[in-house]
Write a structure and sequence with these properties.
Layout lengths: L2 H12 L3 H8 L3 H8 L7 H11 L3 H8 L10 H20 L6
Helix pairs in contact: 1-5, 2-3, 2-4, 5-6
């Protein structure tokens, strides 16, 4: 599972800085950077705070972070659809200005 990459991808798609996300999630910028670079393992409560700061459902973040082998017996086409749907929900919320402002 690559939660750090999923956080970075969501943050960049939302067009927000690490500073903004860290402030909203009540963590340091250096900690967020370490998470994004997979140098630290976040707690579930921190993932939840970051997801809220990004206005992203925690479940969507986990789907985006999942690797194919971690999805168990889910058909690979379905797994791809889930990941695309998660990304699509992030993009459409961004278009609506969910994070900025």
């Amino acid at each position: 599972m690559d939660v750090g990459n999923a956080i970075r991808l969501c943050r960049k798609r939302r067009g927000v800085s690490q500073t903004d996300v860290a402030m909203r999630a009540d963590c340091s910028v250096s900690y967020l950077s370490m998470l994004e670079n997979n140098k630290r393992d976040p707690t579930l409560s921190m993932i939840t705070k970051i997801a809220e700061a990004l206005h992203v459902p925690v479940g969507a973040l986990f789907v985006m972070a999942s690797e194919e082998k971690e999805l168990g017996n889910i058909d690979s086409r379905l797994a791809g659809r889930l990941q695309r749907a998660a990304m699509s929900s992030i993009l459409s919320a961004n278009d609506a200005g969910a994070v900025r402002g």
